[in-house]
């Protein structure tokens, strides 16, 4: 139990972005951590919930559906691919890239 609590506490530490913004929670962790998330169900749930919550927040703030219907499996698969090739990036940065790519695709329709 202490180990799980320590993991959750690490996930909550804020990390500043180069652009001056701060990513808090699981999104501040690296894509390497994302790729290793399946080793611990608590971490897996925290990371995946953080990403869909982040994307949902962007949808609400933009007052439109940025991430095409919120297909959970598609979001997780996209993050898996993105993190595989950019393992040192933060989860939050990867999630923002997903949102920007999705918004660009939606604008083309």
Would you write up a description of this structure?
- The chain is mostly helical.
- The chain is built from 5 helices and 2 strands; from the N terminus they run αββαααα.
- The protein has a two-stranded antiparallel ribbon with strand order 1-2.
- β1 and β2 form a beta hairpin.
- α3 packs across α5 and α4 crosses α5.
- The radius of gyration is 14 Å and the shape is globular.
Calculate the mean pLDDT score and round it: 80
Q: Give the structural class.
A: mainly alpha
Strand line-up of the largest beta sheet:
1-2
Relative helix content = 55-70%
What's the story with the biggest beta sheet? 2 strands, antiparallel
Number of strands: 2
Total of DSSP H or I helical runs spanning 4+ residues? 5
Can you give me a brief rundown of this structure?
The chain has five helices and two strands, in the order H-E-E-H-H-H-H. The protein is mainly α. The longest helix has 22 residues, at 41-62.
Topology:
Layout: H1 2-11, E1 15-16, E2 22-23, H2 31-35, H3 41-62, H4 72-85, H5 91-108
Antiparallel strand pairs: 1-2
Helix pairs in contact: 3-5, 4-5
Quick tags:
109 residues, mainly alpha, 2 strands
